[in-house]
Design brief:
about 600 residues, alpha+beta, Beta-galactosidase, Chain A, domain 5, 2 domains, 10-stranded antiparallel β-sheet, 6-stranded antiparallel β-sheet, about 20% strand, elongated
């Protein structure tokens, strides 16, 4: 152990450095990586636009996929041409083509007979925007990119195949199109048939179940393609530049390999061209709250990722004559995803390293919501319960910091009197032993609390339950930044209150160091973070958690500083009731 490690001030600085690193990591991820990613994406779009201009003509409208597979693509086929040899249908052509519609209860699915692709997948329980009556559509048919549910075989695709509705639930179709409303648990299968440009007959059976986001697609060919290539099924997702500007939304491409290892591919890594990422059990495209996952019926298959402007696509393969594919298109609701056996789709929800803590916290959040009927109150209740559970650790950390603060005059005197480093260390250890102080005693309780903090942070950041969930007053969406408009100016009230509470909390926390520079730095930190929260807004649910956490921490510190005021446990209980009661009154406004 060197001299510095035994030095009290350096030990306390190390403790603060750990806490600061955690906060900086969160801030860096939320406030700096997202803008950098957007800038990179914008640069890539400009480059792609220039390339498209240069290649205008025969290549207009063609999709350039990115390939991922751990098995080399069969010889004789240029992967760059696997997007088909025909021009993509225009929006006018798609609008004029017949469609079959299936209402599965949780979503309305519209399939165009031109290409047999999904032109609309509109969710019933999740709206397009706050206050909107229109369901969120997971498919954007207004773009120039390929639509979901495309079939690719070698150099050919079904993009311009005019499909015929051959059967419904195994019986010959009685009309050219179908319009089906499914009751919960009821099943329906629509079979579409057509002919690929190379003359191969293709069938596409789409099977739905009422009130289920999971459906199946069976693709069959009457004979293999001459190249011997497998049949690929594609799903596409549109990441608009406008949505990318909303920093609270994280976009992701996730793949689960045969070793059950999850690989997350950043959007900026998916560029025009071809790449390989390995065979996977499934591939999923999505954002913070929603995902579309392609799951083949076999264990692992080749996987293709593609990009055409703002449209990203994923493909999975079957045999050379077809196969079955499972598709999940819906919310990232942990309970819903976990209920789909053997797929492990719940892993599309990124809860970080401390998912084992985030999951029970999410369960507790839902339980509190079921009790109070308001997710804002549920967040307040969850925060107060966590703070009460961690109170013994907080008390131990505070007591250690207070003892170190009380020792500062004697430590300063030792440093002035003893100049030899070795002797100084011995004298300081003797002082610690005599006073019964552990110089690192305040560090360990804080370290134990950090995983809980990060678990709760990730739980609130990714909870789809908070999407469009109101709390009180002007806070109508806990997944979005809050802002109270006064005289036409948006004021982030909770952020300002949080900043004030952070300043006060820092001021009342014992500082073991006598260094005035360090003390000033600790006082400035809350203002810096508050400024970042204003410039790069955080979801209101997270700010509410942070504000309540600070308020109850202040109450606990006041009673821990002066035991004569009463029991800190009783004070925590009384303050918790008061804070929750105030939050309940706000919901009545």
């Amino acid at each position: 152990m060197n001299d510095n490690s035994n030095d009290t001030e350096h030990n306390q600085r190390a403790m603060r450095a750990i806490i600061l690193c955690v906060l900086v990591a969160i801030a860096y991820t939320q406030f700096f990586l997202a803008p950098k990613r957007n800038a990179e994406l914008q640069k890539q779009r400009q480059e792609q636009a220039q390339l498209a201009t240069q290649q205008a003509g025969a290549t207009a409208g063609a999709t350039q996929p990115v390939v991922a597979s751990n098995t080399a693509v069969q010889p004789g086929v240029n992967i760059a041409q696997m997007s088909g040899t025909q021009a993509r249908p225009t929006k006018a052509e798609l609008d004029a083509a017949p469609r079959s519609v299936v209402n599965i209860g949780k979503a309305i699915v519209s399939i165009s007979h031109l290409g047999g692709r999904v032109v609309e997948y509109r969710l019933s329980d999740y709206k397009r925007g706050l206050g909107s009556d229109e369901g969120l559509n997971l498919v954007d048919s207004s773009t120039s990119g390929a639509l979901p549910l495309g079939v690719y075989v070698g150099r050919e695709s079904d993009e311009r195949v005019v499909y015929t509705l051959a059967s419904v639930n195994g019986a010959p179709a009685g009309s050219a199109t179908a319009n089906i409303n499914l009751a919960s648990g009821a099943a329906a299968t629509l079979e579409f048939t057509g002919v690929l440009p190379n003359g191969i007959r293709v069938s596409k059976k789409v099977s739905f179940t009422g009130d289920s986001y999971l459906f199946n697609v069976d693709v069959g060919l009457d004979r293999p393609d001459a190249s011997g290539q497998p049949v690929w099924l594609e799903w596409t997702h549109y990441f608009s530049s406008e949505i990318e500007k909303e920093l609270r939304i994280k976009h992701s491409i996730a793949m689960l390999d045969d070793a059950n290892k999850l690989q997350l591919v950043p959007l900026e890594k998916v560029a025009q061209g071809l790449q390989e990422h390995g065979a996977n059990r499934w591939v999923a495209l999505g954002d913070t709250h929603f995902t579309t996952a392609l799951v083949p019926s076999v264990t692992t298959v080749n996987t293709i990722l593609g990009r055409d402007g703002d449209v990203f696509s994923s493909r999975v393969a079957s045999s050379s004559t077809g196969g079955r594919f499972h598709i999940y298109a819906g919310p990232k609701d942990y309970k819903t995803l976990e209920s789909i056996a053997n797929f492990n789709l719940e892993r599309t929800i990124d809860l970080g390293w401390f998912a084992f803590l985030a999951l029970p916290l999410l369960w507790l959040l839902r339980s509190l919501y079921a009790l109070f009927g308001n997710y804002g109150l549920a967040i307040i209740g969850l925060t107060l319960l966590v703070k009460a559970a961690l109170l013994p650790l907080s008390k131990a950390s505070f007591a250690s910091a207070k003892k170190m603060q009380d020792l500062q005059p004697e430590i300063k005197a030792l440093r002035e009197r003893v100049k030899d480093p070795n002797q100084l260390n011995q004298e300081m250890f003797a002082l610690y032993k005599r006073k019964g102080v552990n110089p690192m005693g305040g560090c360990f309780p804080v370290l134990i609390q950090i995983p809980v903090f990060l678990g709760l942070y990730n739980a609130l950041l990714n909870a789809i339950e908070l999407r469009h969930a109101p709390f009180a007053g002007w806070i109508r969406d806990l997944s979005a930044p809050e802002s109270l408009h006064l005289f036409g100016i948006g004021v982030p009230v909770m952020v300002l209150l949080m900043a004030a509470s952070m300043v006060y909390q820092t001021w009342t926390t014992p500082n073991p160091s006598a260094d005035p520079t360090q003390q000033k730095m600790m006082m400035i930190m809350p203002l810096v973070f508050a400024g970042m929260f204003i410039i790069f807004p955080m979801p209101a649910g997270l700010v509410l958690y942070w504000l309540v956490n600070n308020i109850i921490s202040i109450v606990q510190q006041l009673y821990m500083r002066n035991a004569a005021k009463g029991s800190v446990y009783m004070a925590t209980a009384v303050a918790s009731v008061a804070i929750f009661g105030f939050g309940y009154l706000l919901t009545m406004i």
